[in-house]
Amino acid sequence: MSESDDSAVTEPSLPAPGEDVARGTGVALWKQIAERIEAEILDGRLAAGVRLPTEMELSERFGVNRHTLRRALAELAEKRLIEATPGRGTFVREPPIRYPIGPRTRFSEIVAREGRAPSGRLTGSRIEPASAEIAAALGLAPGTEVLRVDIVREADGVPLNIGSHWYEAARCRDLDLLVAATGSVTRALETLGLGDYRRLETRITARPADEEERRELSLPAGRTVLVVDAINGDAQRRPIQYSRARFAADRVQLVVKN
Amino acid sequence: MSESDDSAVTEPSLPAPGEDVARGTGVALWKQIAERIEAEILDGRLAAGVRLPTEMELSERFGVNRHTLRRALAELAEKRLIEATPGRGTFVREPPIRYPIGPRTRFSEIVAREGRAPSGRLTGSRIEPASAEIAAALGLAPGTEVLRVDIVREADGVPLNIGSHWYEAARCRDLDLLVAATGSVTRALETLGLGDYRRLETRITARPADEEERRELSLPAGRTVLVVDAINGDAQRRPIQYSRARFAADRVQLVVKN
DNA sequence: GTGCATTTGTGCGTATGTATA
DNA sequence: ATATACATACGCACAAATGCA
Questions:
Q1: pTM attached to this predicted model
Q2: Cβ of B54 < 7 Å from strand D?
Q3: What SMART domains does the database record attribute to this sequence (chains A, B) (predicted)?
Q4: Measured between beta carbons, which residues in chain A are less than 8 angstroms from residue B224?
Q5: How far apart are CA B59 and CA B212, in angstroms?
């Protein structure tokens, strides 16, 4: 949610007052309005984060009843182009970051390529016994000691995902310290000579965000997280890392090229 | 939700009455209980769909307070192994279907390979003008006529996803009738000589299910859908179909092999 | 529909052990 | 050694959702 406050709409574009909409054309008024606003959002005349004029003001400018205007806004909200909050107003949504899933999936590279500034902060790390799931993925005996590293990763300061990474403890001495120092799992692994890992398999599910996830990702209640589990391996495709990233679902779009 | 009714727990296994839990061992009681039930679920002694005994009964059998037992159940619910509904009881969850995303992604093949019976029913079809998004994906001018086909697809009778498919209308005469007749988009396309389509790109997002989706997928309120948009092309990688599938998120796990 | 029993969900109060400052 | 905080465990009570007569 970019806080654009007042700076938002200096030149609101949209309809000049009195510039009405075409009646009796067989196209519903709400649809004409929705298409008109959608066009302005898509070609950037209405930038992401901008606050739209109030429903009252818009309905007057388009010369329709507020109900009619709300039908148009509902259409745009359905398409995830705008987002309304009672008491605050209606805002143009940030477009989701396209996040490619491929053999070389690197958070910072992906975010940078989208023109955003990647960052990350360590939220915890510890040694724990491998769960059945993680042991199976890494080809270890269940209960083997694994190092777990948790980080929150952000783009332009807004949290994008919570990442948990599990490594066979024996292979990764002091990885956690390196991650803390560099803020990047990628760089820390490079230092340990494991920089050339590649994505072997990705598993994707989704569910409502729990309380911790809402807090870490600053999500309002009812939002959903994309749970992306990944097995990463070395050059010989031997698994060396299992990771679980929980993305704020409305801030990303996972892309698979085939 | 498989309706297992009474046939469920003939031999409930779990703890025999009086068989208590180890106190004062440094391992929390709830953790011992959770691990014990998890083991029974994982090795199949507690089958998917089975209803667990009530919390009162379980707490008595384990010899702990109901709160303590509930802490154990919460752990298992967090791991998505069980699911509780007020008034109904607590059930062992069906494991999600692994749904591979690849160049040859076919619903019926995938479901059949998971040992389930695939089926589908047409819910609507019509000609409509291409939206900006669909036109861009198919390489058409916006507003070009496209054929839209909507189907609900199920595995063993439980709905898995709602699929909408858009085809350039000119290339697909009477495709809708064929889909209605065969119940399979794949087969209908084969009849038209377009059976060899392949997945070019897949885009994945997630959000709470809306009312229509909850109805079509028989989901309770608050559940989430995985929205999987795909561009499918012919042998020359020319786009011929755009599709949007909305999956019941807790019934599938999308898998990407790299 | 109405009422009732069953079952899960939630809140409050209390006590105890354990780790930390 | 003392104080504080936290997780664990128990007891009682009631709310909310479901299913059934």
A1: 0.85
A2: no
A3: HTH_GNTR, UTRA
A4: 206-208, 224, 249
A5: 39
Q: Name the residues contacting strand C (CB < 7 Å).
A: B 26, 52, 54-56, 67, 70, 73, 84-90
Task: Tell me the H-state helices in chain B.
Answer: 29-42, 55-62, 66-78, 107-113, 132-138, 175-182, 185-191, 211-216
Give the C-alpha distances (Å, rounded to integers) separating B20 from B16, B234, B252.
9, 63, 37
| Spatial distance between the Cα atoms of A258 and A245, rounded to a whole number of angstroms | 22
User: b vs e for A37-62, b when ≥16 Cβ sit within 10 Å of the residue's Cβ?
Assistant: bbebbeeeebeeebbbbebeebbbbb
Q: Tokens in use for A54? A: 């109030």
Closest residue to C18 measured CA to C1′: B26
Which H/E stretch holds residue A246? strand A239-248
- CA B141 from chain centre, in angstroms, equals 34
B199 CB neighbour count, 10 Å cutoff? 20
**Are B253 and A203 inside 8 Å of each other by CB?**
yes
Q: Is the pLDDT of residue A5 over 70?
A: no
Using a 7 Å CB cutoff, list residues 104-163 of B near strand D. none
Pairing of strands B198-208, A252-257: antiparallel
Q: For residue range A170-210, what is the model confidence (pLDDT) as tens digits?
A: 877 777 777 777 777 777 778 877 777 899 999 999 998 88
B80 CA to C11 C1' in angstroms comes to 26
Alpha-helical (H) ranges within B99-167 are: 107-113, 132-138
Query: Average model confidence (pLDDT) for chain B?
Result: 86
Tokens of A3: 């806080």
Query: Cα–Cα distance between A49 and A83 in angstroms, integer?
Result: 10
Backbone angles phi, psi at B55, to 5 degrees: -60, -40
Percent of chain A with pLDDT over 90: 30
pLDDT band at B19 (very low <50, low <70, confident <90, very high): low
Report pLDDT digits (tens) over B30-55: 988 998 899 899 888 899 999 999 99
- CB-CB neighbors (< 8 A) of B258 in chain A: 101-103, 198-202
pLDDT at B106 over 60: yes
d(CA B144, CA B254) in angstroms, rounded, equals 32
For the cut 50, the answer to whether the pLDDT of residue B218 exceeds it is: yes
The distance (Å) linking the CA of B188 with the C1' of D3 is: 76
Instruction: Give residue A233's identity as a one-letter amino acid code.
Output: G
Quote the pLDDT of residue B118: 94
Domains and CATH numbers, chain A: 1-93 (1.10.10.10), 97-256 (3.40.1410.10)
Whether the pLDDT of residue B209 is over 50: the answer is yes
The answer to whether residues A225 and A241 touch, using CB atoms and an 8 Å cutoff, is no
B201 contacts on A by Cβ (under 8 Å) = 255-258
B186 touches strand D (CB under 7 A): no
